[in-house]
Amino acid sequence: MLLRALPLLLALFVLSKSDTDAGEDSEEDDSEDCNRTTLGGHPVDISTAPWIASISIKQKAKCDGAIYKLSHIVTAGKCVDGFLNKAIRVRVGSTTRSDGVIEVEVCNITVHEKFTGQTVLHNLAILKLCEPLEASKKIQAIQLANQLPANGAKVTANGWASFRWWAMYWKKCLDDEAYKLQKAEVKLFGPRQCTDLWAQNNWSKKNFTEDLFCTEKFSKEACSLAMGSPVVHKGKLLGIITKGGCSEYPEVYINLIRYKDWLNNHTK
């Protein structure tokens, strides 16, 4: 009887082993995907970018921004346009979006008067805080640069994962990482070079002006940081993300240096 059952037992063992191996391969593939599907950079502590701010709308993290002054945050107009002051909160001083943050109310929103919401141009807003922030190792204002560095210069992008892209490409192993501050070292390019990098996309021909610049993708699988995330060079602010995605196309930034007068006039 045992001999008759032996072939069946052997077949069951092979199938079981095959399923186990497939499961192990699946876990390895998932891990590999998580390594490829980045959240825009690698995790860092808030002390390496104390000027960063997370913007929440109705208690949900939506965008990022930079502490332009201890009383003012610069972010993307598209993030806050159409919302009341009471719906917006600024979170600072923490590596994660939710734990240990200092949350501040917003008393006034100024969206750039030329921003239409239909293009990436003039996608800029200033949030005046109801109470100024207290400077510390984790909270600091950042100065605006006087000019963009040369084409191809290495710049630093900081921010949190865009929940828009994270939701589309969600994987369990990314769950914790999505809440951590990210950093990416990338190359910067001016409008002419950006148009070339976007050459296969008609969008660039009608949108790239001197008010914009772009940064290379450090990985084709990388997704952009949240809208409004700042990019800096040698500790000085250059711009904020106005257009991103999960493609091979470069991130597009508002060149804040071109808006210096506007920024200063609205942060007095």
Automatic annotation (TrEMBL):
Residues 38-268 form the Peptidase S1 domain. GO terms for biological process: proteolysis. Residues 20-41 are annotated as: Disordered. SUPFAM superfamilies: Trypsin-like serine proteases. Residues 1-22 form the signal peptide. Gene3D superfamilies: Trypsin-like serine proteases (2.40.10.10). One of its GO terms (molecular function) is serine-type endopeptidase activity. Residues 21-32 have a biased composition (Acidic residues). It comes from the Eukaryota. Keywords: Disulfide bond, Hydrolase, Protease, Serine protease, Signal. Pfam families: Trypsin (PF00089). PANTHER family: AT20289P-RELATED, POLYSERASE-RELATED. This is GM15595. It comes from Drosophila sechellia. The lineage of its organism: Eukaryota, Metazoa, Ecdysozoa, Arthropoda, Hexapoda.
